[in-house]
């Protein structure tokens, strides 16, 4: 099956998934013609680009770490042509050489070829592309499925649209697909079913969970049975450090099943290259990606040219093999950070918290045992008040739930701290939990 050429459903099929705002958007007349400027011999009078001779930045040199030997550096000097691209306007979907490099990466990592009716666009980080997707596909009042708990930076996107949010429960093995099936099979006949499902399948922020293969397959089956699109938000794909082989992405699995066109995948370079470059990329069916691109032309024209040039200047010298070697080392780095944090948890908080070990990402999601019998309490006061007063800053679990309901869980990040800081932070957190127990902090 994997050797067959698959194509997405026809363009008309995707009209049902577009928001009215997206349908109302029109193309930028100038940017629609910009690709024609590359035609040999053409003299363009089209775009009001500044003349690059007026730009004061005349050269740029830096060094990058050798992906196979962290003790070595690779000197990089941008050519005049590279620098000119970085200082000038560029295509809405990304500079061509970076886009081509990323297409190849998707083929290597997910087995997806360009001939399958999908496209890739670069954006100013995953958040930029996700916001454009949400506004392009969801109308006020539409029902949506959001896994819970979930990244709080995305929750306001859905709340602002005032859509009807339905939380899908997750556990240590990811989204509970059987619960999703129950929700769909019991859906009121008088109400349209959700056309969008949002999920972070690797190293979910905040839980650190990675979705099992069995659940991924069931979610994909449900997408076809009940006609919804999966927004696969995957910034921690390259930070997987679980003992078992990494399960395939939704983007790869739909190809393996021979039923492509139900997944829009969001990737990020923030966790493995630089968060400050603000570069992410989305891959999905042509009609849906064009809707995202149209939002870009209306909103910010394009992703940052210089950030893209800096990224591809490194990536092209590394090659795909070098990039993957680098990400393997990065994942190992965070696995060691996780191990240090968990050792300190066992040392200081045994009997006071419960947690499942994450297999990817930067976070530990732990339940505070605020009563002697371990019955559920609320982490809000324990974290925001008692922990802060003890000199520890973390997040109570309620901020990760679209409904804002109470929960005994909290999230801690281990990506930055040194071992002595971890030890001291969790020693202080122990005291905070004991304080909360004394004051009867259950609400």
TrEMBL record:
GO biological process, one term: alpha-amino acid metabolic process
Key word Chloroplast present: no
SUPFAM superfamilies in the cross-refs: PLP-dependent transferases
Listed InterPro entries: Aminotransferase_I/II_large, Class-I_PLP-dep_aminotransf, PyrdxlP-dep_Trfase, PyrdxlP-dep_Trfase_major
Keyword annotations: Aminotransferase, Pyridoxal phosphate, Transferase
Cofactor requirements of the protein: pyridoxal 5'-phosphate
Annotated signal sequence range: none
Pfam families: Aminotran_1_2
Classification via PANTHER family: AMINOTRANSFERASE (PTHR42790), KYNURENINE_ALPHA-AMINOADIPATE AMINOTRANSFERASE, MITOCHONDRIAL (PTHR42790:SF19)
Protein name listed in UniProt: PLP-dependent transferase
């Amino acid at each position: 099956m994997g050797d067959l050429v698959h194509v997405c459903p026809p363009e008309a099929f995707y009209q049902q998934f577009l928001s009215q705002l997206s349908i109302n958007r029109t193309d930028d007349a100038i940017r629609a013609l910009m690709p024609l400027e590359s035609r040999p011999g053409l003299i363009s009078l089209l775009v009001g680009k500044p003349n690059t001779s007026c730009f004061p930045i005349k050269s740029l040199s830096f060094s990058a770490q050798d992906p196979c030997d962290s003790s070595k550096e690779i000197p990089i000097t941008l050519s005049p042509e590279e620098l000119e691209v970085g200082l000038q306007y560029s295509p809405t979907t990304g500079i061509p050489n970076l886009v081509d490099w990323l297409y190849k990466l998707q083929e290597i990592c997910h087995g997806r070829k360009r001939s399958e009716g999908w496209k890739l666009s670069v954006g100013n980080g995953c958040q930029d592309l996700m916001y454009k997707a949400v506004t392009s596909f969801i109308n006020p009042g539409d029902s949506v499925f959001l896994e819970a708990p979930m990244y709080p930076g995305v929750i306001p996107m859905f709340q602002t649209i005032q859509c009807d949010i339905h939380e899908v429960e997750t556990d240590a093995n990811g989204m509970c697909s059987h619960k999703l099936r129950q929700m769909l099979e019991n859906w009121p006949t008088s109400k349209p079913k959700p056309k969008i499902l949002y999920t972070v399948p690797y190293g979910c922020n905040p839980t650190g969970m990675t979705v099992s293969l069995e659940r991924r397959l069931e979610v994909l089956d449900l997408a076809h049975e009940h006609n919804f699109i999966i927004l696969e938000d995957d910034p921690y794909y390259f930070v997987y450090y679980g003992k078992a082989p990494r399960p395939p992405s939704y983007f790869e699995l739909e190809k393996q099943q021979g039923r492509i066109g139900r997944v829009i995948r969001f990737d990020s370079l923030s966790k493995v290259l630089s968060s400050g470059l603000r570069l992410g990329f989305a891959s999905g069916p042509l009609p849906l990606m064009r809707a995202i691109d149209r939002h870009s032309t209306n909103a910010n024209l394009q992703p940052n040219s210089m950030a893209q040039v800096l990224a591809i200047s490194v990536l092209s010298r590394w090659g795909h093999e070098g990039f993957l070697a680098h990400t393997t080392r990065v994942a190992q780095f965070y696995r060691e950070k996780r191990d240090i944090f968990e050792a300190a948890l066992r040392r200081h908080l045994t009997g006071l918290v419960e947690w499942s070990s994450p297999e990817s990402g930067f976070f530990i999601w732990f339940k505070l045992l605020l009563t002697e019998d371990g019955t559920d309490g609320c982490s809000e006061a324990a974290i925001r008040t008692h922990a802060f007063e003890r000199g520890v800053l973390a997040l109570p679990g309620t901020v990760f739930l679209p409904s804002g309901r109470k929960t005994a869980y909290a999230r801690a990040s281990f990506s930055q701290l040194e071992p002595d800081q971890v030890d001291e932070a969790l020693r202080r957190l122990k005291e905070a939990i004991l304080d909360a127990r004394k004051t009867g902090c259950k609400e």
